[in-house]
Specification:
Elements (H helix, E strand, L loop, with lengths): L2 E6 L3 H11 L4 E6 L2 H10 L4 E5 L7 H11 L3 E6 L4 H9 L4 E4 L4 H20 L8 E4 L2 E4 L4 E3 L5 E3 L2 H12 L5 E2 H9 L9 H13 L9 E4 L3 E4 L3 E2 L2
Parallel strand pairs: 1-2, 1-3, 3-4, 4-5
Antiparallel strand pairs: 6-7, 6-13, 7-8, 8-9, 10-12, 11-12
Helix pairs in contact: 4-8, 6-7, 6-8
Amino acid sequence: MLGRILIVDDDPDMRLVLREHLEPEGFEVLDAGNGAEMRALIEQEDVDLVILDLQLPDEDGLNLAKVLREKTDAGIVMLTGKGTSVDMVVGLEVGADDYMAKPFKARELLARIRSVLRRTKQARSAKPGPGGFVVRFNGWRFDSAFQRLTDPQGGDTVLTAGESRLLQTLIDNLGQTVARETLHREALGYDMQSSSRNIDVLVGRLRRKLDSEDGRDNLIKSVRGIGYEFNGTIEQD
């Protein structure tokens, strides 16, 4: 089994279509028709990824994404019939790993699912040692193996897999501007489409976790027309 996927969509035909695409590829599929069913399932079952419809009859999909992010480390791919950039940005801001609008191409959805599963599985299996590192900067401590940030006051924040890979890539290129396309590929696991804002949303999420409320730290600098640069000072042990 390649992974257990939970489909949350109020349209039974859509759930059936997704199941018919996923099961022949080696995935185990569970499904829920509303938020209440989803909540019950995640309390009883471990899942690797959730395909979550944005519009559900009983509860907003964005709120359910927050619930998933609090209760599970499963990947989240949001599906919606709206397809607007505003929905995409909000979905990613609340913790979704990726976003696709209906109608979608089955091959592209499968590629996105595999990419998210690969990143989340790598994060779950990460152990201290060669596969990760600990770095300190501006009073912060970043443990890449456990995707954990510790602020200067000692408070811990757990990063998503994408946020951790983004920060690691920026630190690996300290003092250099990293192109948005490169960051997108390293953090999200697939090539960026020309109109995509996924990496900008991911940078925004990471900035809010890193920077002070007044913005004075400015640890991730935007370089207009190119990408982003890590602006921290690495501290030696």
